[in-house]
């Protein structure tokens, strides 16, 4: 031990001798005399700091003002239907009579509300098993290159503009639905199938994150107890990720609920209570998209549309709230 | 583990004139509530190297980082820090000026992803130094003082990240002394370095001692004994013993200190 | 049924579902490219669109999309950068910061049609801008801000704390440290984030229908006077983008070659998104290598 240390010392000294550590004399960088006064006075840095903090805070405030303005403006116009035009809120929510041009007793949005929820729920229900399967595949069954490829494909799927999905819907899904079920091919089923593809990557990537967040040890200890892969997945992985999977699904539903153009292109845009999945219908977003340009600002038909927008906004807040609620509990 | 209160403790004191910096009852509360440093009162003599030793988690870094107010954002620091007869642990103190007067070198070398030259001139330029010739001179002298000049003089405009760990650490020292501080705080500056780089670094520090007051955290007892005049022993957030390095290593007053030192040398 | 058998069946089901998804992916992207790419001729890209005849191109829409993207980034980048810096570097851990984060989350999950309608209300109607590039760019800014802010915040947070401490220990102000040290180190991540958000902006249509409008005015590409109504640079003229064009020709259904125009435009959009997606990472990595490479010059 001592011998070894001496050897090491020798090595070090040899190396030092060889590299000739310079023994410099230095003058220009002698410690300066500290001006104690400066320690108590604000300096350039103090001002910089105030500037930087102020400037960046301004940006934050701007975003805050923006969201307040959005909620305020949409809220104001959306409520005008009920305040100025005296439409009954319950009538609005539960009546299926949508013909705002005909007066305040014909502003019933129930058909659109039901359709919006229908496409959203159906899309989420179809997408969830696929998403969980893909996420399990990417985290539990394969690794390396194949995961990366699948991941970039998923990212690409998120990146495809919604009008392109709408167009594919028109080209592929509408004729297919028409061929199988008859009718026009437009309707809830078509919209659902398109939304399914659109929310698939959203739910999948959040579910992948959820699975990845589960410690490896949990899986190992389960496997050590003799559990099969599926038992481990079922009893450990899925259970531990339960609340985050819920969150993923809600994010997917939020995306589906708010999607406008792809749905509007595929659903047929007839404000009717849907009695089956292949008849033309209309969602809140599709009605807004197709009608906002056809009404005059300040009239009842226009205000009624803003009420639909307000409903969308409120649902978006509700989805947000649900995510937080689950996050707190889980 | 023994109770620290059972140990006889001896804290060496200096007169205020002798000290470059000293603390009175310094306590640190992380997040404002979790106390990790307890009433530490230590003075550091001018133009000496003082080593801070102690087990991992004993509060050495916490103490060191309080001296130049690096803990401001994460912790509440109570007590006073006397520097030029001024308590610098007050909110009215200009921490930027304070940090220019009290330089710091960290455990992991952290050069900026800029050229070697810019690493040294960046802060100088921010302070308004514009004279190119003067800057070049400071670059050369501080690199010489950090015993790095010969190795890098031909590649001052290359990225500092291309240097070895030991070279990076010496660059960080050069960067700190380029601001001409009075005091250098070093937090395990050699822990990431190989023996040769360590020896060079120690050689550098020994030379700098003539001009600077240095406080250095180290886990390496040999290193402490090689280059420091004074040593303070930290234990669970308390400064248990503070004396000349010789006394601490050969004749520790307390049992815990003795055990720690024996354990570390053995 | 025993555990082994269940295990095999489960694996089978998972592989089956994954197989369907992969087929779907390939089918969708293949379909867009195969039906669209053959129509991407120079003529298609460089001629004006037609409002009722077949054979129109997408020159103006392409320019408008790029111009709107540029303006949107010009407006949203400084704001997002500021907000991201505040959140990553200054924000104390308190209820106010929490509120701001929630706000940004809400903004990011707002349906883009709602954002577009808000833009319509505020800029087109209230401020009297009319359907215009400016109104469109502002609506897209709202749409872009939350994503861009969190992308940039991530990039900034990725810079090691030791770099900040190095700056502080030299007596630099926090702001100087951020500007001179943290931001350059975060640049690769910031650029990746900006390009990824640009891809989203480029394909967005719902926020534009009622802000930038659904029709183009006649555009003169030799008129550099930005105040002239016919100038291609005029920000007060209405402007239809590629994505809006696809939507419009399909919902109006007037031109006889709707499918050809839509397929070509869709392919173009998807190709741009692919380029943005892969380009973002590649460029980010390249800049990172440049910044940390052994040789600076
Ligand atoms: N930023 C922080 N927030 C909360 N607690 C901290 C923080 N930094 C350090 N601590 C705690 O303070 C105590 C002292 O840590 P410190 O880093 O000062 O120890 P140290 O003596 O430097 O140890 P080492 O030799 O490992 O560097 C430890 O319990 C540590 O967990
Ligand atoms: Mg430490």
TrEMBL record, chain B:
CDD domains: ABC_PstB_phosphate_transporter
Keyword set includes Magnesium: no
A Pfam match: ABC_tran
One BP term from GO: phosphate ion transmembrane transport
Protein's name according to its UniProt entry: Phosphate transport ATP-binding protein PstB
NCBIfam families the UniProt entry points to: 3a0107s01c2
InterPro entries membership: AAA+_ATPase, ABC_transporter-like_ATP-bd, ABC_transporter-like_CS, P-loop_NTPase, PstB-like
Keywords: ATP-binding, Cell membrane, Membrane, Nucleotide-binding, Phosphate transport, Translocase, Transport
All copies of domain ABC transporter, residue ranges: 21-261
A GO molecular-function annotation: ATP hydrolysis activity
GO CC aspect terms: membrane
């Amino acid at each position: 031990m001592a011998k070894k240390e001496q050897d090491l010392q020798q090595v070090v000294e040899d190396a030092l001798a060889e590299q000739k550590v310079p023994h410099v004399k230095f003058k220009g960088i002698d410690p300066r005399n500290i001006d104690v006064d400066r320690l108590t006075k604000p300096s350039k840095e103090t001002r910089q700091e105030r500037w930087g903090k102020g400037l960046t805070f301004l940006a934050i405030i701007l975003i805050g003002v923006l969201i307040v303005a959005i909620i305020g403006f949409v809220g104001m116009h959306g409520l005008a239907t009920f305040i100025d035009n005296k439409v009954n809120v319950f009538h609005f929510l539960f009546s299926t009579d949508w013909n705002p041009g005909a007066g305040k007793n014909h502003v019933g949005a129930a058909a659109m509300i039901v359709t919006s929820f229908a496409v959203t729920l159906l899309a989420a229900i179809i997408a969830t098993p696929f998403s969980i399967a893909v996420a399990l595949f990417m985290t539990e069954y394969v690794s390396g290159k194949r995961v990366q490829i699948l991941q970039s494909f998923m990212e690409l799927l998120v990146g495809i503009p919604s009008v392109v999905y709408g167009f594919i819907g028109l080209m592929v899904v509408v004729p297919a639905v028409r061929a199988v079920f008859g009718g026009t091919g437009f309707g809830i089923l078509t919209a659902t199938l398109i939304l399914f593809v659109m929310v698939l990557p959203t739910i999948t990537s959040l579910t992948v994150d959820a699975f990845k967040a589960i410690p490896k040890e949990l899986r190992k200890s389960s496997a050590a107890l003799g559990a099969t892969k599926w038992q481990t997945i079922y009893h450990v992985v899925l259970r531990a990720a339960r609340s985050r999977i819920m969150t993923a699904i809600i994010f997917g539903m939020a995306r589906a609920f708010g999607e406008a153009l792809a749905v509007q292109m595929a659903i047929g845009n007839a404000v009717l209570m849907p009695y089956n999945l292949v008849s033309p219908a209309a969602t809140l977003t599709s009605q807004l998209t197709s009608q906002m340009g056809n009404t005059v600002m300040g009239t009842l038909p226009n205000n009624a549309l803003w009420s639909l927008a307000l409903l969308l906004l409120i649902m978006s807040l509700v989805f947000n709230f649900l995510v937080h609620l689950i996050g707190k509990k889980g | 583990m023994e109770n620290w209160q059972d140990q006889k403790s001896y804290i060496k004191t200096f007169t205020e004139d002798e000290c470059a910096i000293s603390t009175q009852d310094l306590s640190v509360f992380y997040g404002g509530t979790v106390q990790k440093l307890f009433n530490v009162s230590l003075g550091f003599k001018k133009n000496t190297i003082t080593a801070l030793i102690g087990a991992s988690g004993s509060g050495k870094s916490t103490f060191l980082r309080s001296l130049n107010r690096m803990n401001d954002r994460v912790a509440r620091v109570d007590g006073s820090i006397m520097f030029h007869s001024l308590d610098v642990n007050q909110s009215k103190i200009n921490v930027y000026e304070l940090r220019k007067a009290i330089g710091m070198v960290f455990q992991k070398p952290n050069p900026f992803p800029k050229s070697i030259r810019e690493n040294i001139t960046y802060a100088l330029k921010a302070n308004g130094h514009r004279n190119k010739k003067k800057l070049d001179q400071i670059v050369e002298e501080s690199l010489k003082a950090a015993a790095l000049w010969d190795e890098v003089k031909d590649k001052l405009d290359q990225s500092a990240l291309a240097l070895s760990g030991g070279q990076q650490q010496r660059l960080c020292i050069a960067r700190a002394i380029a601001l001409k501080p009075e005091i250098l705080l070093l937090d395990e500056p050699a822990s990431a370095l190989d023996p040769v780089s360590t020896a060079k670094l120690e050689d550098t520090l020994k030379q700098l001692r003539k001009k600077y007051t240095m406080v250095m955290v180290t886990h390496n007892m040999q290193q402490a004994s090689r280059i420091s005049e004074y040593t303070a022993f930290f234990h669970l957030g308390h400064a248990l013993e503070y004396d000349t390095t010789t006394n601490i290593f050969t004749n520790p007053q307390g049992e815990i200190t003795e055990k720690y030192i024996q354990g570390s040398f053995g | 049924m025993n555990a082994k058998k269940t295990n095999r069946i489960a694996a089978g089901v998972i592989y089956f579902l994954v197989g369907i998804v992969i087929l779907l992916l390939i089918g969708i992207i293949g379909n867009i490219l195969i039906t669209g790419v053959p129509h991407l001729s120079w003529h298609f890209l460089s001629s004006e669109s037609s409002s009722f005849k077949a054979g129109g191109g997408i020159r103006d829409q392409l320019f408008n999309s790029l111009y709107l993207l540029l303006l949107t980034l010009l407006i949203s980048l400084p704001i997002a950068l500021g907000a991201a810096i505040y959140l990553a570097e200054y924000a104390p851990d308190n209820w106010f910061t929490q509120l701001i984060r929630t706000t940004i989350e809400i903004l990011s999950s707002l349906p883009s049609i709602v954002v577009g309608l808000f833009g319509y209300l505020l800029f087109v109607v209230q401020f009297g801008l009319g359907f215009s590039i400016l109104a469109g760019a502002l609506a897209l800014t709202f749409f872009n801000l939350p994503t861009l802010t969190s992308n940039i915040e991530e990039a900034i947070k990725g810079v090691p704390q030791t770099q900040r401490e190095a700056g502080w220990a030299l007596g630099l102000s926090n702001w100087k440290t951020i500007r001179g040290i943290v931001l350059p180190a975060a640049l690769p991540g910031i650029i990746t984030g900006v390009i990824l958000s640009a891809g989203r902006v480029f394909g967005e249509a719902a926020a534009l229908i009622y802000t930038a409008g659904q029709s183009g005015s006649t555009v003169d590409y030799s008129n550099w006077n930005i105040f002239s109504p016919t100038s291609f640079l005029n920000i007060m003229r209405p402007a239809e983008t590629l994505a809006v064009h696809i939507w419009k020709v399909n919902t109006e259904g007037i031109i006889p070659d709707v499918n050809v125009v839509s397929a070509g435009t869709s392919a173009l959009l998807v190709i741009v998104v692919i380029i943005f997606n892969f380009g973002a990472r590649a460029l980010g990595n390249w800049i990172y290598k440049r910044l940390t490479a052994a040789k600076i010059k």
